[in-house]
């Protein structure tokens, strides 16, 4: 092995105390020698496997001072095994080990699109099952008024609806106003698509691209980021980077929490 004199040793490999960090799944680190940056997906005896934002996997040895975490040199170590400790759900709520799902309420939460439903399930699924709240997805909001009328929200069957790109003066905002009542709440986020509700930093990008009007937004995002123009695969990559509520924008978090509170508060059971 090549030996370096002290003044030629790379700064990130100099012998000085550095933190030891468990290589927990989802931890994003960089291997400075190669510049490869990715999330931990597996840690075995002596090695760690990282996945970058394109889904590429690389295996690296667990060497002392071998990685950068948020720009700081760290030593990754294999996570300790032992009895499970109290933890939290992906939404940040205290987990209840062994809790059984509650019988579903009559109330529901509707979200606009399959991707929205999958994201809500991943982050809030444990909480929703304990509360007995079912989430269903809509293909769009054009028929929302008829859907709400058919559902017939009431004191024992509250309805919450999450709408994409709900901005003042839009068609969506007029539809939302028309169906909102004491027992039906429609809220929305300002994003063109729920993809934007995921923090760019969680995906290793600076920001979400601006896509010119007239172009399909999701396809335009894939093209701008250099991803294959397969929106289904792109969404699975995005969803795979969401580990908890910390990976979502506060605006989206607030709207979903508002709907859950509305459906589950007294009178909605």
UniProtKB/TrEMBL annotation:
Residues 1-26 are annotated as: Disordered. Residues 20-79, 108-265 form the DUF3097 domain. InterPro entries: DUF3097_C (IPR021447), DUF3097_N (IPR053883). This is DUF3097 domain-containing protein. It comes from Streptomyces pratens.
């Amino acid at each position: 092995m090549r030996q370096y004199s002290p003044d030629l040793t790379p700064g990130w490999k100099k012998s000085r105390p550095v933190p030891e960090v468990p290589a927990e799944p989802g931890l994003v680190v960089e291997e400075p020698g190669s510049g490869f940056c990715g999330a931990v997906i597996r840690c075995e005896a002596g090695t760690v496997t990282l996945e970058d934002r394109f889904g590429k996997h690389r295996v690296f040895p667990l060497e002392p001072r071998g990685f950068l975490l948020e720009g700081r040199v760290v030593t990754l170590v294999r996570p300790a095994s032992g009895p499970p400790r109290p933890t939290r759900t992906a939404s940040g709520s205290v987990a209840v080990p062994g809790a059984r799902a509650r019988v579903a309420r009559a109330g529901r939460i509707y979200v606009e699109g399959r991707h929205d439903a999958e994201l809500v399930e991943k982050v809030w699924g444990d909480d929703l099952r304990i509360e007995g709240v079912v989430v269903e997805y809509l293909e769009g909001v054009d028929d929302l008024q008829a859907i709400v009328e058919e559902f017939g929200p009431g004191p024992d069957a509250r309805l919450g609806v999450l709408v994409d790109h709900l901005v003042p003066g839009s068609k969506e905002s007029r539809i939302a106003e028309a169906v909102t009542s004491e027992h039906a709440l429609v809220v929305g986020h300002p994003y063109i698509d729920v993809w934007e509700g995921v923090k760019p930093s969680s995906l290793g990008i600076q920001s979400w691209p601006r896509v010119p009007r007239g172009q399909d937004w999701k396809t335009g995002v894939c093209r701008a980021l250099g991803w294959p123009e397969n929106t289904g695969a792109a969404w699975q990559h995005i969803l795979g980077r969401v580990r908890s509520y910390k990976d979502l924008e506060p605006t989206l978090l607030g709207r979903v929490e508002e709907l859950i509170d509305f459906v589950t508060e007294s009178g909605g059971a």
